[in-house]
Write a structure and sequence with these properties.
It is a single chain. This protein has 426 residues and is mostly helical. It has 21 helices and no strands. Helix 4 (69-90) packs antiparallel against helix 14, helix 7 (128-146) packs parallel to helix 19 and helix 10 packs parallel to helix 18 (361-376). The protein is globular, with a radius of gyration of 22 Å. It starts with a helix and ends in an 8-residue tail after the last helix.
Length: 426
C-alpha cells in the first residue's frame, strides 16, 4: 500500500483527534465538543472517503464494526452495570460503603488502599472492567466525602485495574498473548512481574505520599452493613471467577431485595432506578458503537495493515524487533480500542518477528500484553476509561492525566526493552 493510501486509511482517526482534542484545547473546555459529535463527524468522514464500494455497502461495514460479538457483549455489560450502579446508589449502598471505608482506613491511606484493592481484585478476577464496575461508584462516593477530585480517584481505580488485567492467569489478554507466542502462562507471568511490580510499588509509594495530607471526615455516620452487601456480593462472586454478567445480575437482585427491606424503594421504585441507570449509559453505548464502526472502516481500508508493514520494514536487531512488537500492538490498540483484539491482530506477526530475530517467546508475550494494557488504559474512548467515567459521571478526558499506573508501566516496559531487561529473558 502506498503512503498516500495508508495515511488516507488512517485519516478518520486523525479527524476524530483534531475535532475533539484540538478544538477542546483551543476552547480550553473538554465539554465544548461532545464525544458523540466528534465520533459522528469522524464516522461520516470515514464512510465518505471509503471509495470502491456503494454507499449502502460502506454503511453495512460500519454497522458490522459497531456490532461485533465482543462489542455487543460489552454493551450488555454497560446496560447491567448502569442498572446495578444506580439502584445501589438509590438504596444508599455508596454512602454505606464509603462510611465503612472511612471507618476502616485512616485518611492518609485512602489513595493507597483504593489502589491496592483495585490491583488485588483485578488480579483475582482477571478483568479490568469487572474491577471498575465494583469500585468506581465507591471511588465517586469517597471523592464527595473527602474533597479529593472524582476524576483522580477514578484514575486510581482504573489504573490499578490494569495491574490484574496484565498479570492475571485468567485474563483474556494473558491467555491470547501466551497462546500466540507459544509459551506457558506461568513463564509469561514471571517475565511480567519484573516489569509490573516495580511500577506498581512506585505508584503505591506515590499514593502514600500524596495521601499524607488527606484527612478523614469527622463524625462518620454509623455503617449500615446490609446496604454494603450488594458491593460485597459483586466483589466476592467476581473474585471466584463468575462471569461478569452473572455477577451483575446477582448484584442487581441484591439491590432489589435489600433496598425493599430497608424501605429505600418499593418494587416499582426499584424498576425506576434500574431504568434510570440504563438510560444514563446511553451516551456511553453510542460512543462505543460509533468507535467500533469507525475502527472497522479503518481496518477495511487497510489502515492497520499499513501500520504493520511500515513498522516492520526497518528492523535489524533484537532490540529493534522488540520495539517493533511494542509499537505494533500499541498502534493497533489505539486503532481498535480493544487490547484483546490488538494482541489477536498482531500476535502471529509478532511470533514471526520473534522467531526471525531469536527473541524469547516469554518476553514477546509480556511485551504484547503490557503495551496493549498501557495503551488501553490511556485512550479516552477505551471501554475501561469510558466505564469509569460513566459510573462516576465525569468526562473521560479528565481521567486520562490521573492514570499514573498505565503511564509508568509504559515507561518501565520501554526501559526494559532498551536495557534488555530482564537479562535472562532477553
Amino acid at each position: 500500500m502506498s503512503n498516500k493510501k495508508g495515511i488516507l486509511a488512517l485519516s478518520p482517526l486523525i479527524v476524530f483527534v483534531v475535532i475533539y482534542l484540538a478544538t477542546s484545547i483551543i476552547a480550553n473546555d473538554f465539554y465544548k465538543v461532545p464525544l458523540t459529535v466528534a465520533f459522528m463527524l469522524a464516522s461520516i468522514y470515514a464512510i465518505a472517503i471509503s471509495g470502491g464500494l456503494p454507499l449502502k455497502k460502506r454503511i453495512f461495514h460500519y454497522s458490522r464494526g459497531a456490532s461485533t460479538e465482543n462489542l455487543i457483549l460489552m454493551l450488555w455489560i454497560f446496560v447491567m452495570a448502569g442498572a446495578f450502579a444506580n439502584s445501589a446508589k438509590e438504596m444508599g449502598s455508596i454512602d454505606a460503603t464509603v462510611n465503612l471505608t472511612l471507618s476502616l482506613l485512616p485518611g492518609n491511606m485512602i489513595l493507597a488502599g483504593l489502589f491496592v484493592a483495585s490491583c488485588f481484585i483485578s488480579l483475582s478476577i482477571g478483568t479490568s472492567v469487572g474491577t471498575i464496575v465494583a469500585l468506581c461508584p465507591i471511588a465517586a462516593g469517597l471523592a464527595a466525602s473527602t474533597g479529593i477530585s472524582t476524576a483522580f480517584l477514578v484514575g486510581v481505580v482504573v489504573g490499578g485495574s490494569f495491574f490484574g488485567d496484565n498479570l492475571s492467569f485468567i485474563s483474556d489478554t494473558t491467555i491470547i498473548a501466551t497462546s500466540t507466542q507459544g509459551c506457558k502462562l506461568s513463564d509469561k507471568f514471571r517475565v511480567n512481574l519484573f516489569i509490573t511490580l516495580p511500577a506498581a510499588l512506585i505508584i503505591l509509594i506515590i499514593y502514600v505520599v500524596m495521601g499524607a495530607g488527606v484527612n478523614s471526615p469527622t463524625n462518620v455516620p454509623e455503617v449500615e452493613y446490609l446496604k454494603v452487601a450488594p458491593y460485597l456480593v459483586v466483589l466476592i462472586t467476581a473474585i471466584f471467577g463468575m462471569n461478569v454478567m452473572a455477577v451483575l445480575a446477582i448484584g442487581l437482585l441484591c439491590t432489589g431485595v435489600f433496598g425493599m427491606i430497608y424501605g429505600s424503594y418499593d418494587l416499582f421504585g426499584w424498576f425506576s432506578s434500574m431504568g434510570t441507570g440504563i438510560t444514563n449509559m446511553g451516551e456511553l453505548i453510542i460512543i462505543t458503537m460509533m468507535a467500533g464502526g469507525l475502527l472497522e472502516i479503518i481496518r477495511l481500508n487497510g489502515g492497520i495493515d499499513y501500520i504493520i508493514s511500515k513498522l516492520t520494514a526497518h528492523v535489524h536487531n533484537k532490540r529493534g524487533a522488540e520495539l517493533s512488537i511494542a509499537a505494533l500492538v500499541s498502534i493497533v490498540g489505539v486503532c481498535t480500542a480493544n487490547n484483546t483484539v490488538a494482541i489477536l491482530t498482531v500476535g502471529d506477526i509478532s511470533k514471526k518477528i520473534g522467531d526471525k530475530y531469536g527473541l524469547d517467546n516469554r518476553k514477546c508475550a509480556s511485551i504484547l500484553d503490557t503495551f496493549s494494557c498501557c495503551v488501553q488504559g490511556l485512550i479516552p474512548y477505551g471501554a475501561q476509561v469510558l466505564m469509569g467515567a460513566g459510573l462516576a459521571a465525569v468526562n473521560p478526558i479528565e481521567i486520562i492525566p490521573c492514570l499514573y499506573y498505565p503511564m509508568l508501566l509504559g515507561v518501565v516496559a520501554l526501559i526494559a526493552i532498551l536495557l534488555r531487561y530482564p537479562r535472562r529473558y532477553s
